[in-house]
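Data availability excerpt. The first of two example chains:
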Amino acid sequence: MRNRAKHPVALFFATSGHSGVDRVVANLVQEFADVDQPFDLVTICGHGPYIDELPDNVRHVPLRAAHRNTVLPALIAYLLRHRPRALYTASHRLNRAALLARALARPRMPVAIRMGMSVAATLEALPRRRARRLQRSMQRWYPRADAVIAPSAGVGEDLRRLAGVVQPHLHVIPNPIVTPDLLQQASEDPDHPWLGENRDPAVPVILGTGSLEPRKDFATLLRAFARLRQQRPARLIILGEGRERPALEGLARELGVMDDLCLPGFQGNPYAWMARADAFALTSRREGSGAVLVEALACGTPAVTTDCPTGPADILGHGQQGPVVPMGDDAALAEALQQVLDSPPSADTLRQATTPFDAARSARAYLAALGLAHPPASSDH
């Protein structure tokens, strides 16, 4: 049961509902069920995370705000009414809003902010004027946070170098990804003929997953797959949805691989697909860590990745657990896929590489970042 005598810890997020951040929050929330502390999951109307069943010690508090840019008054009202003992948030606009609301309404409350994406790559992708504005905003607000959380060493270095975050407040905490639920879902049937028991073992299946957007660079994956198909039979499945779907379908037709491509859209349980794929490919141009790469390894699936900023190369041990190729290089990617299909690492070796991403371990580190104790919930909670 929720301990009403304690002030809550606020978890303030606004997500798309089907992103990597959604999985991070969902896994943290489930791990916090074992803590003798009430939590408020504070959200914005029309945004995720959408978690079907919250633990008894987590209450959902939707704010009366329709957009991240207009959330400040509602957030201040929440802080004044519920007086949380600490607040965690993520993404730049919420980070800024949380720090400003704290200054106006509850100045002694510790705040932890999270930046999940490579700052350098994000700034480089923006027009120069917008990039300068974003960096100045980070430099103004981020040093005021009590803790700044990065999912990888590369993002942490970006925050130190580009946002002025000093080391005592900077915490590199791998994403909370590997859970018993992930492993249970991986054992389920994806209900797809290419991955069924009667599949042709001579036709390996390569899997990619993520929003169909330019940053994920699935076009390079399609071109690499077309090269691979010239050498051997294979099939490609890309899970996810987005505005790039028409362009990717057009490219697949142009490359002559449409019959061996499946774009089934967003899947609530991607782990069942990962566990049955012969290889997984991450082809992004920028990431914060690369959660899907960890998920694939946890399923025992061989993987290849681009050397994008930041995190994926670290996950694969810079080539020890799987090939790392230059971004946008479809020839190198095709060769890497051929390599892991011919000589896959053992599933046990891949799973061992995911130890830093254990969700319980990550949740403890999140609480420790603000000096919050981690007592276990008593038996009557």
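And the second chain:
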Amino acid sequence: MGSFLGDHAITSQGTSFLQWIQATGLTCWNELLAFGIPIFLSGSSGTSRSSVIDLFLSTSPLLNPSMQICFDLSLGSDHKMVNLTFTPYVLPPPPPTNHPRLLWNLSKLAQPDTLKIYIDTASGSLDNLTEQFSAFLSSSPPPVDSLCSAFAQAIYDALDTAVGRRTPRIMQKYWFWSVDLQEAMDLRERSYQHWRHSSGLQKAICWMRHQDACHAVRLSVQHRRCETWKEFCNKLATQDFAKTTATMKRIKSHHQTSPVFVDPGGPQVAANKMADHLQQIFSGQFLPVRRPPDQTVMISSPIAIDESCPFTHLSVESAILKLPTRKAPDVDHLHAEMLHPIVKQVSPVLCLLFQLCWQWGNETKGCDFIFTVAIFLRDFSL
């Protein structure tokens, strides 16, 4: 980009890119903070080349910007690592400290003694909830949110007593890295620094040592790849067959492309077209001119619970038993594995909860039904 960045290399691509930067009014921070300092350094093919390639652009000014170019790091690339730091105008929110889900040692429920403790503890709490829920029948609009929270808390307490909480597993981000790889990388960086700060014939000797260190890093990476692949294959061959098939299914799904709506004008154009299309579809222009009147009736008194009520103990119990296992929980943190052992104790409480919502109809808030109908939404037969 020539004199704009203090670069000696001038190309047609750089000229076109410079014209685009100036036309859009972008700020190039390499010009302001690192003018004339090359970021790309190459000595291959017996020639020395340098240029400013990696750029930092912004649409608005930055607060307290500073740029640092790490010339003493090799990193196995001709591009030097560049750090641009600045003070954000709005501080980002802190990362969450708590795990988004409550976890328990559910595998302990396979032990008869632990299962008995869980059932006995849950039975006492759920029996008390049955009496509390029954008090709201035909009296006043029930606080469904509070009742749902009390139901979930009763199961939480029973799980805490029987199996205990489980701390979330910390994902290993550096599973591929090893001590041998780190030592090879450190040797490569030290040899590169020696080469940069040497002179005369010693510089040629340091360069040869640096090339040997780079070759050793490549061999170490290749060896580690073969090692991790063998570990992965051995794990698939020795672990439970269900886990193996799940792993293969996950790998296959990652290699399958999902159909997406694209446009030659770019993703923003595609998003705008899709938004316009959905706006047209749901605008109501396709509805018939003559439509029946709204039949919604706001009731002021509860509906009597008789044979017309769709919720019974047996229907709720059947729906719970049909819940699929090994599925992610909803916002209530409850799995099907938690409800199946205590289905006899849970079904009366949930039946009363469903009956209360059905009895008072529109008197309860729409958002309150999320918890109560979750089970029946999963059961397609109801």
